[in-house]
TrEMBL record, chain A:
A molecular function GO annotation: iron ion binding
Protein name in the entry: Cytochrome P450
UniProt similarity note: Belongs to the cytochrome P450 family.
Xref: CDD domains: CYP142-like
TrEMBL record, chain B:
Protein name listed in UniProt: Ferredoxin
Alphabetical UniProt keywords: 3Fe-4S, Electron transport, Iron, Iron-sulfur, Metal-binding, Transport
SUPFAM superfamilies, sorted: 4Fe-4S ferredoxins (SSF54862)
Coiled coil: none
Domain of life assignment: Bacteria
The species this protein was found in: Blastococcus aggregatus
UniProt xrefs under InterPro entries: 3Fe4S_ferredoxin, 4Fe4S_Fe-S-bd, Fe-S_cluster_ET
Any one GO molecular-function label of the UniProt entry: iron ion binding
């Protein structure tokens, strides 16, 4: 594949800032070069850019939002959760009813102290020290998935789909193991995650209108959780689902709905983001063969390379905050109730912070990216797990599938929220 | 003498400090951060500074 064009922004001096509309769904179907050219323009000329909200059927459009594209501004907002709260919704631009927002966002859409109390239930499982204990199982799962992908390709015409055969099953199996989701329910988890994060991409919502599809996926996951929770109350194990059903917050057990939404959050977040980093990371390596060769030859680069992949891919494009009071930030005045969309994907290419931001540099160090979120209470719970999964996956890929070659254009998810790929065609050349 | 300060309202139990300075920091079974040496000795100081700087929630400080 002749993909030596950098994934950086296209040079487009004629780009009209007044014509930019981040609420336009079609914008999110554009290739990364277009997306980053727009982010560059906004960051340089209008770091707090105001946009009208996207329309959504059955919902009244709200007042609009500020798009934040500079890393310094984004991090300042993340670090002040009392002024820029999450409780009015962090994963939806529109104000959706609080119960629905909390159901799909769980603690992402909560503020402290409740957020912290809920997060502590599972925090320990995701610390670096505890994750040391699951390293072996991560290696085992990655090796199994890669061996299956290899066998499948070799049994056929040598081709495979990086997303379906490698990037999706690895994090799916790992998070389902941690949660105790049995084998036969994992397809349901995969499909429901896809729907919940489809951003209304018509291919993933099966003709149904996006809101109905979202509700149905949520109900399917809640039903699965109900079944597992009942089993865990009878027979506790050491998995995360047992921790959820047994935990108490302020002396009270979590409600069925709280457990369900927590369960959905862990499964969806644990699945989708790492899948995107693996698939988009492999695409980036194929576009930068010299970087790939260096990393392959030098395992001591794993740490910096993984951080750079996360910066480069920015699996989650944005999260929302809402101002709880009037104020001013870095010279920008805002009013209580103003919404801010923190564009991690834009901040991660901020030339004020990163030298040659549109160049993939797997040895970049330091790399203060915000791919796991800015500083603050909502910093990605799964960051250490994700780093571990990515380091193991790429290293084992270099060993088990060194002949993997991307053969065509990726099918990109039309979503403003996650930077997902639906498909990425590849083949094994057999030259090892 | 340097003293470790934890902002309990900010700590989310990410465990980054524990991984960098395990002699000083430990998350207990409830995910609450315990500080074993509030006044870390000279051997711990580099690791503690690293932990303070790396805390994703900016919950740690070292008063020197």
């Amino acid at each position: 594949m002749s993909v030596n064009t950098p994934a950086g922004p296209v040079d487009s001096p004629e780009l009209d800032i007044e014509a930019i509309d981040l609420s336009d769904r079609d914008f999110w179907a554009e290739p990364p070069a277009v997306r980053h050219a727009v982010f560059d323009k906004l960051r340089a000329e209008r770091p707090f850019a105001w946009f009208a909200e996207p329309t959504m059927e059955g919902m009244e459009a709200g007042p609009g939002y500020w798009a934040v594209t500079r890393l310094a501004d984004l991090d300042a907002i993340s670090s002040e959760p009392a002024i820029f709260c999450s409780g009015q919704g962090a994963v939806s631009i529109q104000d959706i009813p609080a119960d629905l927002s909390e159901f799909y966002g769980s603690m992402i859409s909560m503020d402290d102290p409740r957020h912290a109390r809920i997060r502590r239930i599972v925090a320990k499982t995701f610390t670096p020290r505890m994750l040391e204990q699951v390293v072996d199982s991560v290696v085992g799962i990655v090796d199994d998935v890669l061996a299956e992908a290899r066998a499948k390709a070799e049994a056929g015409d040598g081709t495979l789909d990086v997303v379906a055969d490698i990037a999706a099953p690895i994090p799916l199996r790992i998070i389902c193991d941690m949660m105790g989701v049995p084998e036969e329910d994992r397809l349901l988890v995969l499909n429901a995650s896809n729907t919940i994060l489809s951003g209304g991409d018509p291919e993933l919502t099966d003709e149904a209108d996006p809101l109905t599809a979202l509700l149905e996926a949520g109900m399917a996951m809640a039903e699965l959780m109900g079944r597992l929770a009942a089993e865990r109350i009878e027979n506790p194990t050491d998995d995360l689902t047992t921790a959820l059903v047994n935990s108490e917050v302020e002396g009270e057990k979590l409600t069925h709905q709280e457990i369900a939404s927590f369960f959905i959050l862990l499964l969806v977040a644990g699945n989708e983001t790492t899948r995107t980093a693996i698939a988009q990371g492999l695409l980036a390596l194929s576009e930068n063969p010299e970087q790939r060769a260096r990393w392959m030859a030098d395992p001591s680069m794993d740490k910096t390379a993984v951080e750079e992949i996360v910066r480069w891919v920015s699996p989650v494009t944005w999260m929302r905050r809402t101002a709880t009071q009037d104020g001013e930030l870095n010279g920008h005045s805002f009013k209580e109730g103003d919404k801010f969309l923190l564009f991690y994907a834009a901040a991660n290419r901020d030339a004020e912070v990163f030298e040659n931001p549109h160049q993939l540099d797997l040895s970049r160090n330091p790399n203060p990216h915000v791919g796991f979120g800015g500083h603050g209470p909502h910093f990605c719970l799964g960051a250490h797990l994700a780093r571990r999964e990515l380091a193991v996956t790429f290293r084992r890929l270099f060993e088990i599938c060194p002949d993997l070659e991307i053969t065509g254009e990726p099918a990109r998810l039309r979503s403003s929220f996650v930077n997902g790929l639906k498909r990425l065609p590849a083949r094994l050349t057999g030259q090892r | 003498m340097s003293r470790v300060q934890v902002d309990r309202d900010r700590c989310v139990g990410s465990g980054v400090c524990e991984s960098l300075a395990p002699e000083v920091f430990e998350l207990d079974d409830d995910g609450v951060l315990q500080v074993h040496r509030e006044e870390p000795g000279p051997d711990d100081l580099d690791a503690v500074r690293d932990a303070v700087q790396s805390c994703p929630a900016r919950a740690l400080a070292l008063a020197e």
